[in-house]
Amino acid sequence: MIVRNLAEESLTPRRVDSEGWTSVRLILEEDGMGFSFHITTIHPGAELRMHYKNHLESVFCMQGSGSIEDLATGERHAIRPGVMYALDAHDQHILRADASGPMVMACVFNPPVTGREIHGPDGAYPAATEPAESA
Amino acid sequence: MIVRNLAEESLTPRRVDSEGWTSVRLILEEDGMGFSFHITTIHPGAELRMHYKNHLESVFCMQGSGSIEDLATGERHAIRPGVMYALDAHDQHILRADASGPMVMACVFNPPVTGREIHGPDGAYPAATEPAESA
After folding, report:
1. Do the domain assignments include residue A52?
2. Over its length of 135 residues, how does chain A's per-residue pLDDT go in tens digits?
3. 3 state SS of B102
4. What is residue B120's predicted lDDT score, i.e. its pLDDT?
5. Distance, CA of A75 to CA of A61 (rounded, Å)
6. Does the residue B124 lie in any domain?
7. With an 8 Å Cβ cutoff, are A5 and B70 in contact?
């Protein structure tokens, strides 16, 4: 049994800060669960264009508000606590957080993130078999 | 892209009520994500003995407090918002919610739950290939 605490893990390398977001990976590939689980904070006013070519991801909003734009259809969906989206088709999207405050999301990735990825210039994480672009 | 809302899905068969808990399965096997994702409410004062023989599960506490007892070691861990536990070894456990209020948890199962399982008398969900014990 693994037991971890978000506040404590925020002080370890499981916390990753990037432009517009901060993520704490409570479960990584090395934990052997077959998925990874991250608590990700999207900074107020952030606009993030993303495309996970190598991963499926689900995102559940726990706090804050914003929107997700599906770049295949142009459709925008409001995000608020209780809303979940799942990128079941490696959907290209833009995630926007309202300026009024951060959005806090519970994210699941399959296959699991190793912790060594960063978003590439194409908005993707590399596949686990590709060399990581950064530590 | 799948977009779902906890409040709306609570009114559908994705909501399952059982003794001591209520779960809304926002992602099920049929969604093709390779995991399932549930928002599960543990009723105040509930004491649930569980053993997922066929699934790995992670649980992140969003609201409320209680404890998890690892039946292999007898160790008890406090549960409060921000605490996550992962049953990476099909751990037998007892989950307890404090009487002061419900615990609300974000749960991930691998392999994904189909939505047709119930906990068997052994505290397990059947494997997906076994006949479901109930609708």
Report:
1. yes
2. 999 999 999 999 999 999 999 999 999 999 999 999 999 999 999 999 999 889 999 999 999 999 999 999 999 999 999 999 999 999 999 999 999 999 999 999 999 999 877 665 566 666 654 433 322
3. coil
4. 59
5. 19
6. no
7. no
Q: Using CA atoms, how far apart are residues A99 and B32, in angstroms rounded to an integer?
A: 33
Tokens of A9: 């893990």
**ipTM (interface predicted TM):** 0.89
What is the C-alpha separation between B122 and B52, in angstroms, rounded? 9
Task: Confirm whether B31 is domain-assigned.
Answer: no
Helix (H) or strand (E) holding B6: helix B6-9
The CATH number covering residue B80 comes to 2.60.120.10
Residues in chain B within 8 Å Cβ distance of A108: 33, 35, 37, 108
Question: Has residue A133 been placed in a domain?
Answer: no
Which residue segment(s) compose the domain that B70 sits in?
37-112
Tokens coding B85: 């536990």
Nearest to A120 by CA among A55, A52, A57: A52
User: Looking at the complex, does the CB of residue A2 fall below 8 Å from at least one CB of chain B?
Assistant: yes
Local structure of residue B9 (DSSP, 8 states): H
Number of domains in chain A: 1
DSSP notation for chain A: -EEEEHHHHTTSTTEEEETTEEEEEEE-GGG-SSSEEEEEEEPTT-EEEE--SS-EEEEEEEE--EEEEETTT--EEEE-TTEEEEETT---EEEEE-TTS-EEEEEEEESPP-S-----TTS-PPPTTSPPS--
Q: Does A37 touch chain B (CB under 8 A)?
A: yes
